[in-house]
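Collaborator request, handled under Task 6.
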Amino acid sequence: MESDPPIPAIEPYSTTAEGKSPVAAVLLEVLPGVVQVFGLGSIYAGNVKGGLMLMISYWVASLVNLVLMAFGIGFISYPLTWLTFMIIGPLAALSKLRDVEAADQSGDPAHSVDQAG
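Structure tokens returned to the collaborator:
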């Protein structure tokens, strides 16, 4: 009696050459972004400097918006700032993953991952 050949595993989503998932990168930007933490998806994608810049720039913008609330302007600019970062964060993470994948396909190790941070 012969046994059936093993069924190949089906991956639920694609990954980059580095093995990092674009879905995970976006979720790491969007889910923490709901509680106003941005940049984790970029850090996951290998862009540590960019991720830290997103975090710090959002905190600075939030402080400016808190001051502007005394003049009434912050009540409009604060949600717009949050929405802007909710759009820019995932796009930055996906852009880094695409750059890494393109560098891996071209065989250029100098542009694959930001090792220094």
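The cover message to the collaborator said: "The mean pLDDT is 83. The radius of gyration is 19 Å. Please let us know whether this matches your experimental observations."
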